[in-house]
Amino acid sequence: MEILVLFVGLGVLAGVIFGEANISFFAGITSNIIELLNQFGSNGLVGFIALLLVVSVFKRGATA
Predict the structure, then answer these.
(1) For the CA atoms of 40, 42, 45, 47, what is the dihedral angle to 10 degrees?
(2) CA 18 to CA 58: how far, in whole Å?
(3) For residue 63, what pLDDT band results from cuts at 50, 70 and 90?
(4) Taking Cα atoms as reference points, which of 16, 22, 18, 21 lies closest to residue 34?
(5) Distance CA 51, CA 39 (A)
(6) Angle at CA of residue 50, ends 63 and 56, nearest 5°
(7) 19 contacts: CB under 8 Å, gap ≥ 6
(8) Residues 50-62: tens digit of each pLDDT
(9) How far apart are the C-alpha atoms of 24 and 2, rounded to whole Å?
């Protein structure tokens, strides 16, 4: 799980620095994260509950 979070962070950083069009392996990570957050926000309470579930899964994985 830690490696996955590391790669996502690396992909976001590389996308911001070099632009998404210039990166082949990490292309689209930033836009996909923004789209995911927009979907959580547009669904109101259900999106908020889903976001809490995702955060709890990541926290549980970090402590295990």
Answers:
(1) -20
(2) 28
(3) low
(4) 16
(5) 10
(6) 10
(7) none
(8) 878 888 887 876 6
(9) 22
Domain spans, the chain = 2-19+29-63
Residue range 25-48, pLDDT digits in tens:
766 777 777 787 788 777 788 878
Helices (H) and strands (E) in the chain, counts: 3, 0
In sequence order, which residues have a C-beta less than 8 Å from that of residue 11 and are 6 or more positions away? Answer: 23, 25, 26, 29, 30
Distance CA 3, CA 21 (A): 24
**Cα separation, 29 vs 59, whole angstroms:** 21
